[in-house]
Here is the input.
Amino acid sequence: MSALWRMFAVLRVVCRYRLVSLLPRHPLLLPLTLVEYLHPAAWFGPRNLSEGERLQKALEELGPIFIKFGQLLATRRDLLPPEWTEALARLQDQVAPFDGAEAQAVIERELGAPVSELFGSFDIVPLASASVAQVHPATLKDGREVVIKVIRPGIEQIVARDLRVMTLGARWLERLWRDARYFRPTRVINDYADIIRAELNLE
Here is the structure.
């Protein structure tokens, strides 16, 4: 999915959970408020959810990169109301593991040798799985136990796309709503980008 189509998908979720209405009322936000009001997704969105729950559910629907961002926001009590941060703290980074054989192929491709030559043993069943990577237990030739972290195939492209969408949204919000600068959304996104890129760096 291209960044443009991803932006449309994000907008649909924003409208579905009526996230624009969480922002303070401002004349410059009126066009976006109208889009949210008229979008069909808003008509059939869930009701009877608190503001924090709406934000939580929206991030869950947008996927693991947004979930991890929500987990970061849960720690920013200096920026968000307590009810929001409490809801965001319930976000779980639970992603189904990818095929262990695929993980083995990634290891062999990156290290240039079969796992049978690299390790005394390698468990094809992952020990844990998250949005960016999963880990597999193994033993070295000398018997020491280790865990091997394997980046989820294709996640680099997904991270780059979603970070691009987040950055565009933050810049747009800062330009449209002057008070947004007090919350420094672009700075927050940049800090998050540094964190998640560090997770992708296995060196």
Summary: The radius of gyration is 20 Å. The chain is about 55% helix and 10% strand. Strands lie at 121-122, 128-129, 133-139, 145-151. The longest strand covers residues 133-139.
